[in-house]
Amino acid sequence: MGADLAGVLAAGLLLGCAGRTAMGVEQREAVLREVRSSPPRWLAVSCVRVHLDASPGTTFLLGGPLEEQEPRWPGRSEGILPAGTPVQLLDVSFPGAEARAARPEGTPRDQVWIRLGLPGGTTAILPLPDRAHSVQEFWGALGQWVTRLDPALQTAGWND
Fold first, then answer.
1. Least CB-packed of 42, 71, 106, 151 within 10 Å?
2. pTM score > 0.85 for this model?
């Protein structure tokens, strides 16, 4: 019964933000199902760890230094998470009306937030533009940042 209620609540949240996201409800539900059963992955590119002033307890991962981002968000860069770092997809939050209302000003509120599990038990948000209109486009866009291919297997034997 609890799982059924959780599914109904999740569907309700998705429906509530249907008007302000690029993907339809069915596509978002399919993405969330895949994320829940997703195997471990790795960062495909190095990311800058950032803490924004508007949400200091949240780590964001960006593709470059904070001062080079548009729009500009006040905060501080705190080092690099290198490509090849193992990550786990934990959750995806689409930028509907409820998400925008819950996300603080001064954060990438209009973007899709991918919550990643990092080594050591910490988490981070990888914000991506809300441009995907299908499940395939979503995974294609995420694949530029996070890969299913273990980099250790790709480089095995290079020094033999």
1. 71
2. no
- Enter the tokens of residue 93: 């939050």
Q: Please tell me whether the peptide bond between 108 and the residue prior to it is cis, using omega within 30 degrees of 0.
A: no
CA dist., res. 122 & res. 44, Å (int)? 19
Listed in sequence order, the residues at least 6 apart from 66 whose beta carbon sits closer than 8 Å to its beta carbon are 48, 50, 72, 73, 75, 76, 77
Tokens representing residue 116 in the block? 């990643």
Q: What DSSP state is assigned to residue 139? A: H
What does each of the 160 residues of the chain score in pLDDT, given as a tens digit? 444 534 433 444 444 444 467 899 999 999 999 999 999 999 999 999 999 999 999 999 999 888 888 888 889 999 999 999 999 999 999 998 888 899 999 999 999 999 999 999 999 999 999 999 999 999 999 999 999 988 777 665 666 6
Q: Cβ distance 119 to 81 under 8 Å?
A: no
Q: What is the 3-state secondary structure (H, E, C) of 20-49?
A: HCCCCHHHHHHHHHHHHCCCCEEECCCEEE
